Amino acid sequence: MGETSGSNEAAPGLALLPRQGTPRLLGPLLLDYLGLEALPPMPGATGIDGLMAAAGFLRRDGARNLWEREDRTLLVGEEPLEDGGRLVWALPVPWSASQAASPVSQASPTGERVADRVRYLSLASHDLRGSLANIRSYAALLLNGRIPLEPKAQRGLETILRNADRALSFAQDFFDSSRADLGALACERERQQLLPILDAAVERTRAAASAANVALALDDLPELPNVEVDAGRIQHAVESFVHHLLGRAQPGESLHVRAARVGHEVRVEVRRDGAAVPEEDISAVFQCEERAFRERKLEDPLRVFLARQEVEAHGGQVGAQADAGGTTLFLTLPVSLAASETRELGHPAGWQA
């Protein structure tokens, strides 16, 4: 931390400023650099100016990116994200107070690399997903029943539509996972019930289970505490577990989604009742590159790896277990703090019904 460019560079402290809601830390470094125990509230203030002012920092005269408070000087920048939020990064200034008197016209190389990478991913996502969305839209338009189609053309358009949906889903997973690697995965967390999220995940994967001739059920749940989560992210994680186990299930087997409170956490399980899988498969479930090279495909390894990133972004964990009766993938989520239980329940804005 605070080393010159001739040695190891400091890692940037990161925070996400969502389009709505309060700022969220992406790792502990930003608080260390700010010298705070928690991010300050920002009533009526947005962006870097609001965040740094609330933390007690003042912008240095003549230096757009330098902020000071007592003996601390930070280099701070921000980049817009595709969803309307902003990624804020901060670095301790790696020079003495006397050296810092000279004007600074460039952002930190480390900060620039993070910001440039996020911007690059946003551009690539926009271009790729925009083209795929157009293909999908025109295929769906031709399939709306208003235009008579020969059976062969009908099947061809259905194949185009199906593969466009698959490619859009894969592209979304790829770019989300890449953003997560940079600490820039957007998560719009709200305190809410877990049952609707699990129910939506089961309904979204029911057609795939039916096609595989595998029974899929959401078990009766005990009374659960509310959780502070991005509903869409957790739903995606559960769906990823279901798809992974469906790919290994035999016709006639069954999958169960269930949840229970365990101490200060809620544990969500997706259980496949059936033949056990090899131990090496269990130990590598969440290893994206290892599985992709071994299986010679990326779709499922990436999807399950992103599920791990999404859960870890919430402060939770994932795991896999196997026994003679089947296989279980699970995730844990921290229970909302008691103080937050008095707040009004949020609507699951990210819920993918």
From TrEMBL:
Residues 123-337 form the Histidine kinase domain. InterPro entries: HATPase_C_sf, HATPase_dom, His_kinase_dom, HisK_dim/P_dom, HisK_dim/P_sf. GO terms for molecular function: phosphorelay sensor kinase activity. SMART domains: HisKA. The keyword Protein biosynthesis does not apply. It holds the Pfam family HisKA. It comes from the Bacteria. SUPFAM superfamilies: ATPase domain of HSP90 chaperone/DNA topoisomerase II/histidine kinase, Homodimeric domain of signal transducing histidine kinase. PROSITE patterns: HIS_KIN. Its EC number is 2.7.13.3. Keywords: Kinase, Phosphoprotein, Transferase. It catalyses: ATP + protein L-histidine = ADP + protein N-phospho-L-histidine. This is histidine kinase. It comes from Corallococcus carmarthensis.
